[in-house]
Amino acid sequence: MAKASWRSSDRWLWCILVSAVLLTLLMTFFLLFAFNFDQDDVSELIHNEKVDGIGERGEQWMEVISWEPRIFIYRNLLSNEECEYLIKLSLPRMQQSTVIDKNTGGNISSRQRTSSGMFLKRGHDSIIQAIEKRIADFTFMPIEHGEGLQILHYEVGQKYDPHYDHFHNADRIADRIATVLMYLSDVEEGGETVFPLAKNTMNSVSRSSNLSECGKMGLSVKPKKGDALLFWSLKPDGSLDTTSLHGGCPVLKGYKWSSTKWLRVNKYYHL
């Protein structure tokens, strides 16, 4: 009996020793991996993840343009390749742009807006998803609050008269709170985004001597490929900002491509 008992104890001791050795080996492997993993490899892995669109965007920064309404320019939000991608994606589906009928809420043609355009569903593909995530990051507005991207094209003489992006007599919780206007091309002459009622301007970009006559009618921003304009239609207290009246000046020379992302107060489900 004593011999059998000793053998049983020996087996238990052997199991404990083997477990200890295995645990030591595992800990050694973990420490070697944790401390010898090259930080450059981490950066390379992150850089190679296909979550940041296409092309090089260069240096990005933000400029405050006005506080009434709140207007900001984000330089190099889009790369040249992303601008060209959005244009090519939209070309087969371009149609006459419309405006919203104040009485019916439907879309109608109007001499107020003479461009052509089309819509891309939110999350259309991986590149669109990357752009939408970027917009969400710099606006601090969740992706789910954004409408689908609208792509617009203006030829010489085409424009969009001053208007508001928020809905008249709309339920505020379903209203558009802000607009991100991305410039997909430069414009040789004209095509400025103008805010006739803006106050408290903060940047000389609105006082450029190269503005068209339309552009001189208020605070104006000249389109620059890759840049994005963010302006708010509602004030922080939720009331309408009447100074957010804005328009697209006629293109006088060349052409203009842009993309619009409207942001809602609440989640937007009609993609």
Automatic annotation (TrEMBL):
GO molecular function: iron ion binding; L-ascorbic acid binding; procollagen-proline 4-dioxygenase activity
Enzyme Commission identifier(s): 1.14.11.2
Keyword Ligase: no
Fe2OG dioxygenase domain residues: 145-265
TM ranges: 12-35
PROSITE patterns listed in its UniProt record: FE2OG_OXY
Secreted listed as a keyword: no
Reactions the enzyme catalyzes: L-prolyl-[collagen] + 2-oxoglutarate + O2 = trans-4-hydroxy-L-prolyl-[collagen] + succinate + CO2
Cofactor entry: L-ascorbate
One GO cellular component term noted in the UniProt record for this chain: endoplasmic reticulum membrane
A Pfam family that the UniProt record links to this protein: 2OG-FeII_Oxy_3
Subcellular location as annotated: Endoplasmic reticulum membrane
Membrane protein topology class: Single-pass type II membrane protein
Keyword set, alphabetical order: Dioxygenase, Glycoprotein, Iron, Membrane, Metal-binding, Oxidoreductase, Signal-anchor, Transmembrane, Transmembrane helix
Similarity-based family: Belongs to the P4HA family.
Official protein name in the record: procollagen-proline 4-dioxygenase
Species, as recorded: Dioscorea cayennensis subsp. rotundata
